[in-house]
Design a protein that fits this description.
single chain, alpha/beta, Hypothetical Protein Aq_1857, Chain: A, 3-stranded mixed β-sheet, 3 helices, about 35% strand, globular, DUF779
């Protein structure tokens, strides 16, 4: 099965740092007005996905959720979680005090990859 989600080594370094401080984490990516499409990192349970939001995979066993409407737009794409220096538009995410911001790079799946994608989990 083809994974929908991966992570860069640089982002993993920050995730390890956040795990030490906060424990279990979760990620949520929305298309809202405050955070744009910047993925947000919270302590597990610090954000509650809405009905029909999509969990597209795990990073270090931490769930990565995508807003239901945003997922419909990006469902044909592979997500790669990365980290950048500087504070993003939202500032609600746990990496903000570190002067960093998570970012996702997208790559469209090939026709062959689309036929073998791992399933998403929907919040009910």
């Amino acid at each position: 099965m083809i994974r929908r989600l991966s992570v860069t080594e640089k982002a993993l370094d920050t995730i390890f740092e956040l795990e030490k401080k906060y424990g279990e984490l979760m990620f949520y990516q929305a298309g809202g007005c405050c955070e744009g499409t910047q993925p947000q990192c919270f302590e597990k349970g610090g954000y509650f996905p809405r009905m029909n939001d999509a969990m597209i995979g795990h990073i270090n066993e931490h769930e990565f959720w995508v807003d239901r409407d945003l997922f419909e737009y990006w469902k044909y794409s592979h997500f790669t979680l990365d980290i950048l220096e500087g504070i993003g538009p939202g500032g609600f995410s746990l990496e903000t005090p570190l002067g960093k911001t998570f970012k996702v790079h997208y790559k469209l799946f090939s026709k062959e990859e689309l036929e073998d994608l791992e399933p998403v989990i929907r919040n009910e």
